[in-house]
Amino acid sequence: MDRRQVLKTVALSNAGAVLGLSSAQLRAQSADVFPSKAIRIVVPQPAGGGFDFVARVMGEKMAQRFTNGVVVENRTGSGTLVGTDIAAKAPADGYTLLLGSVSNMVLNAGLYKNLSYDPVRDFEPLGLAVGYSYTLVARKDAPQKSLAEWIELAKAKPGQVTYASAGNGSGQHVIAAALWQLAGVQLTHVPYKGAQAAYTDLMGSRVDLFFDLSSTARVHVDSGQLKAVAVSGPQRLSMHPQVPTLKESGIQNLELESWFGLFASPKIAAKEMAVLKASVIEAMAAPEIRERFEKQGGRFLGLGPEESRAILKRDLTRWVPLIHSLGIQPE
Questions:
Q1: Closest by Cα among 225, 308, 199 to 261
Q2: Does residue 35 have a cis peptide bond before it, meaning omega lies within 30 degrees of 0?
Q3: Range(s) within the chain of domains with CATH label 3.40.190.150
């Protein structure tokens, strides 16, 4: 044993003597402090998207409280299924969190008959941080300016108006399919492998319409490459105040905001769960977090566990039957 090891052992022994504890007990007590290692946030989508952005904003802030840090881990595959399933099956020790959204916590429950996880039974909400509306955008050379005009065209020419999505069963597909069903019109769905390919054809006027997250659509609307027709959230967006909501456009029973938040295993011990919930609430309370989300076009939520659970159950009740009635099938 070298000199440093000797001094460390003596220090531990002296501290133990003062507290009436042995060196072994001190080490055990130190190991019991939660978290004693880095916490990981599983993101079921690739880096660079909405899921990833929210996870990194929250993770950076939470890491200021946890000295061992917070690691964002992108686990992709089968839409959002792979990463969400990994989080559901992780040890219930408090070291694995999930970045959950309407997509993996609600829409998947309607799309897949044999979902490998249960959004309510397998996950405990820690808090919902932000919500993003969807914006219906149209090719810039189309003469139609309002949703009513597009619906009128679709009624006159059934099946001839086209709408893009980022793939069958994607959030973009579900919200658009629900809209056209409620409007009583028939449009042709053109699925793409990701939003970027959809935008390429939309800006090339090879497809007519696309419903995408407002934060992403904003770039193309602001540049004048696309026209914003309507937004899916409960209120107009500050970044595009002139764009009406679906309700204002005559669609009364359709509203979708893609919320994002953190979830954990409900089997985590109460002590560790309390630490996690407190850390998420503390992070969301920071003014700079709200500023970052709003700057990206989001609506800050900052909801605690109970409110988050109520919203999850509300959206499951609302969307799962609707998806079943639409007959949407995942890829």
A1: 308
A2: yes
A3: 39-129+257-326
CA–CA dist 214, 247 (Å, integer) = 17
Cβ-contact 266, 35 below 8 angstroms: no
Confidence check: pLDDT of 17 > 60: no
Q: Which amino acid is at 126?
A: L
250: left (phi over 0), alpha (psi -120 to 50) or beta: left
Question: For 29, phi and psi rounded to 5 degrees?
Answer: -65, -40
* Tens digits of residue pLDDT in 201-245: 999 999 999 998 888 899 999 999 999 999 998 889 888 899 999
Count the alpha carbons within 13 Å of 164 in the hemisphere toward its beta carbon.
26
Strands, DSSP E only, in 184-294?
A: 188-191, 209-213, 226-231, 257-264
Judge if pTM exceeds 0.90.
no
Under CATH, domain 133-231 is a member of which superfamily? Periplasmic binding protein-like II (3.40.190.10)
- What value does the mean pLDDT of the chain take? 88
Angle at 115 between CA 96 and CA 45, to 5 degrees: 50
Lookup: tokens for 15: 């501290």
- Listed in sequence order, the residues at least 6 apart from 162 whose beta carbon sits closer than 8 Å to its beta carbon are 187, 188, 189, 190, 207, 208, 209
- Distance between CA atoms of 305 and 325, rounded to whole angstroms? 30
Neighbour count for residue 239 (Cβ, 10 Å): 18
Kindly compute the dihedral angle of the four CA atoms of residues 265, 268, 272, 273, in this order, to the nearest 10 degrees. Answer: 50
Structural domain 39-129+257-326, CATH architecture: 3-Layer(aba) Sandwich (3.40)
How many CB atoms are closer than 10 A to CB 3? 7
Domain with CATH 3.40.190.10 in the chain: 133-231
Q: Distance (Å, rounded) from C-alpha 331 to C-alpha 328?
A: 10
